């Protein structure tokens, strides 16, 4: 194109860079533009607004950077008991010290980085309770007690709960904390028995270490107090513990102001979620679950509650604006849960865009986006925003690439941080290469911004710093954007007229209504709500109930607040066979406590059924070995009795705090003891669509006890095995055969294990693509090697 002569004219068509105020932006003298603006006469001059990321849809994007929208979702259940005021669990403040503060600070360190952070209002409310109202929890309360004043119950609580951190990344890496963990001997004796082995000094050190490891690495860079405590490691005194708690309070107080500063500076877009994180489609009309799951029965007493859904949204938007000074433009519907009836509610509140998963897009379009082995075949559909129209309203939407999101959530934790960042940027560049959606090309990565990092070395700081640095510098032609900025510059041209109802998990609502326990929880809620409606009308208030300023019925305000909390998604997340927190009973008690509080505020006796736990009996995701084995090492299931006494881990029953998409690599793991050997059998998952023998190509046994030993096995051909880490003998000490199944036999002396000692290990299963799956997702498979008379009786670890 020929350059036009003359001085530059005012910037056209806008005066702002399309992706926000920080990105490089320059007005260049325009070119001969007959082909761009045919209406202009040849030789005319005009100045075009050009930045290094976009040309406002006028030119082909070939060779231009690929816009990448990263959305971090920050959320915790509502732990506060409104009748008593104490938080039931510590995770708001502990994740605050680590993830909510650290994630924002890492963005701040890279001025050219931009992304989106979704802050659930009920999380923000709880953070403010700690900062402004002195909220506490059982963990913080017992941290503050001088170690020599702890009661026996306090000591037992500390010994049971002050190891609640990722053991390999957060506990064992600190020698003193590891010493205290080893002394506790979990699984072998209760806290009351262990207490005799812990001195006052041990307990004080445990109080300090439990809180210290939850500070984000950037906090150690910023606070000398934390560095000094970590360096000292042991023999802490009460003054040092109080100094730790001062830093604790300072960091919590900085979280929300820091987010607002980054928003106002243009680095962050802050978005919201319905106030107490409910599944809005199930509130609006629960029957929408039957679109994806036609045979799903409805709970007894169910009724559509669109007024409750609307209230959760209205409160969220108003609260967000009050805290952060701006009305949110974006919404992450709880668990990415959407339906067509949601669109007018969202549009009416001024929400301009929402986000959910690619499977919702696929189901809405009625076409698969991916082929075999997860290969994306329709990038022109996934990598663009869409306009969703329903009931006369419209809202823009983006759909997350769940493979890229799961790489961060589940796979990269075992990679070197720089290698992982380089790999992700390369994948995004390849995905957006050639602009499959033209000017509207946008790659979206959306995931939990808190739970994955404790599985990374140093809480993922090396990975995130490397990633943000590459994105800031435009490495491999990928540039970070805020969603709002991209949509302002490139409003979607493609439309969806019928949005498939579902969540980000399997494009359905199974987790919240598919199991009998889920439906029982909903029945509890519907029965309590029916009583509350009746009491509200008795007091002369119309339905739907809306609180007023200086409301004359504060008891109704509190009762409806408790019901709104119980409508949150978190309770059903832990019911059924889908997920486990390791503390599911506490979540059930808290759910029922919120429902009981409805009656407490009304000064009524709660119904008896609220004393009955919701969950039925739940199968554990692994069982311990029950008898000695007699294994024929041939890589096949030789006969029925070969592994009959083995412990069994079933991958399908093990879904933890986070939920992964993608093809499972392993169906089950069997393990046990055979005459001086540790025996392990790994069965590849061979569901339809996987190659013969499954997609599993690599398996690594990583031992917690003995600590640091690892055996890595590659399928090849040929099959190879090698010891790594603190492997105490040559790899030849282990026997490995991989045919239909992978069978492993390791002499116990090679592990330094004697009868009566514990074996504890987990498995990293790898695919040919390099993707890894940790089994089990949390914790380890563990059992105690029996004594020499094990053959005389069955034994249980």
Percent in strands: 15-25%
What distance lies between the first and last C-alpha atoms, to the nearest angstrom? 77 Å
Structural class: alpha/beta
* Main beta-sheet annotation: 6 strands, antiparallel
| Strand order in the sheet with the most strands | 13-14-15-16-21-20
Report the strand count.
24
Assign a percent range to the helix content. 25-40%
Shape: globular
Briefly note the CATH topology name of the largest domain. 7-stranded beta/alpha barrel
**Count of helical stretches:** 27
Structure in words:
The chain has 797 residues and is α/β, with parallel strands linked by helices. The chain folds into four domains: 76-265, no CATH class; 273-291 and 304-496, 7-stranded beta/alpha barrel, CATH 3.20.110; 515-611, immunoglobulin/albumin-binding domain-like; 622-792, Sandwich (Immunoglobulin-like), CATH 2.60.40. The protein contains 27 helices and 24 strands. The model is unreliable at 1-60 and 789-797 (pLDDT under 50). Helix 1 packs across helix 11 and helix 2 (121-133) crosses helix 11 (238-265). 46% of the residues are buried.
